[in-house]
Amino acid sequence: LEEQVAEVQKYYSTINDQVNNAKDKSQEKHVIGTKRSRQGGSSKEANSSNTMKEVMHQFSTIFHQITQHRWAWPFMDPVDVEGLGLSDYYQIIEKPMDFGTIKRKMDAKDGSGYKNVRQIYSDVTLVFKNAMKYNDEKTDIHIMAKTLREKFEKKWLQLLPKVAQAESEKEEARALLKAKLAEEAAYANMTKDIRHALCDVDEQLKNLKEMVIKKCRKLSTHEKLALKKNLNRLNGDNLLKAMAIIHEIDPTFQHDAPQVDLDLDCQVYNATL
């Protein structure tokens, strides 16, 4: 039990030190200014978040370049199925997609947006696939979609290593967080068990004390007189120590009063003395 208590104390002491260090570093960054803050945190969670933001920013740049191409206009809005009389469009195309819809979803702040860059990539490629699937190879729309897709895929391949790095860091950060939560839960359970064990020990000590008091014989008249003489012989410091010992057994005993009455017939005092 003693080893478990020491282990729990060490764990929570380490946690407190880490929290205090994090606060100190945060305050230091605030004082030094923007230049220091741009260096970013050393934690895996911070690295993962920064890499993800960088990837999303680079992908947004690619998306902007594609949508600004002179051949991108047919794909900016949903296909006007009724206006163009495309009665078979929904029979051929299962999931319509366009750049305008993608842009709105990228900018969404209500939680309905994309969760990661691969989801955006999938929808962008879907725009080209739908156009190439519905329109014949020799039509302008098919050629425009194919050309833009090739440009987009080339840029995507350049970004892909960074995407893989961001995903790896995110997975590593997630695994680290899971391990930390498991460790915290384990020590929380250990603390709970220790608390129960200490309560049991206190109860056992209380019962043992009561048992000892009950079994302890009373002082004889001769022993009481001898004890009284010995107490009177004690100097001030030693007498105070003796009174303090009795107070530990009986908290109601006023050991620090100017004058005290000690009942030598009390069974509690008999056991102590």
From TrEMBL:
Gene Ontology terms: cellular component: chromatin; nucleus
Biased composition (Basic and acidic residues): 22-31
Region annotation Disordered: where it falls in the sequence: 22-50
Domain spans labelled Bromo: 67-142
SUPFAM superfamilies referenced in this protein's UniProt entry, alphabetically: Bromodomain
Ranges of biased composition (kind: Polar residues): 39-50
Key words, A-Z: Bromodomain, Transcription, Transcription regulation
GO-annotated biological processes: chromatin remodeling; regulation of transcription by RNA polymerase II
PROSITE patterns linked: BROMODOMAIN_2
Annotated InterPro entries: Bromodomain, Bromodomain-like_sf, NET_dom, NET_sf
A GO molecular-function annotation: chromatin binding
Protein name: Bromo domain-containing protein
Biological classification of the source: Eukaryota, Viridiplantae, Streptophyta, Embryophyta, Tracheophyta
